[in-house]
Amino acid sequence: MTEPPRDDEAPAPQPHRPxxxxxxxxxxxxxxxxxxxxxxxxxxxxxxxxxxxxxLVVVLAMTLGPTVLDRAAVxxxxxxxxxxxxxxxxxxxxxDEMRVESGAEYTCTGRTxxxxxxxxxxxxxxxxxxxxxxxxxxxxxx
Length: 142
Hints:
The protein is of the alpha+beta class. The protein has two helices and six strands; from the N terminus they run H-E-H-E-E-E-E-E.
């Protein structure tokens, strides 16, 4: 028989026994079984379809919209040709939208480096594929 420990002695060490973990609670969503993930997937698909349709509309509008001359290019090119022919630089301003349509004509205005006002007529000559044009001075410089 073993004697009970005395007050001045430390108790004998006990073997370590790990405590069992409580069981994990089972997660069940009976109120929203697989519907939550299906609804999320449906919303994502619907959003992607709407985004794709939006992009398609923009691309079609840009592709099927009217062909227009590049305003900056016309101003730059005509001004360079004018300076070469007349020997004086010109600051030219053309309409914002010059559609490339058969027989279309546009008027650009400008001022030479000498301060003289100039009017230039732009005429579309080969629509719509090549977008070629000619220009003429409408009124002579004063």
